[in-house]
Amino acid sequence: MTLSMKNFEQKEWDLYDTNLGQALESVEKGDLQCASECFKRIAWVLHSLSKYHPSIEKEQEVEMKQYINFHL
């Protein structure tokens, strides 16, 4: 992973942490509109991060193909 990718990922996780904290505080205060906006931003951050990490199913599919090819 390149340095710029690591920096991007760190910024995204920082956004996640910030918005999660704000969302939880908003829920405690009863400000559900603000909490909703924070959760939307969290969803966007997770969507953004998911582009750079293969899903578990994809990893398992690749591992299974490698296993089958090795044992044929």
Task: Describe the 3D structure.
This protein is mainly α and 72 residues long. It is 86% helix and 0% strand. It is built from three helices and no strands. The chain has helices at 3-29, 32-50, 56-71. The longest helix has 27 residues, at 3-29. The mean pLDDT is 85.
The main pleated sheet reads as: none
Query: What would you report as the Rg, rounded to the nearest angstrom?
Result: 18 Å
Helical residue percent band: over 70%
The number of E-state strands comes to 0
Give the end-to-end Cα distance, rounded to a whole number of Å. 33 Å
Strand content: under 5%
Stretches where pLDDT is under 50 for at least 5 consecutive residues are none
Please give the oligomerization state of what you see: single chain
- The general outline is elongated
- Run of helices and strands: HHH
Individual helix count? 3
Return the structural class: mainly alpha
Mean pLDDT: 85
Task: Write the topology of this structure.
Blueprint (H helix, E strand, L loop, with lengths): L2 H27 L2 H19 L5 H16 L1
Helix pairs in contact: 1-2
Note the main attributes of this structure:
mainly alpha, 72 residues
Q: TL;DR?
A:
With 72 residues, the chain is an all-alpha fold. It has helices spanning 3-29, 32-50, 56-71.
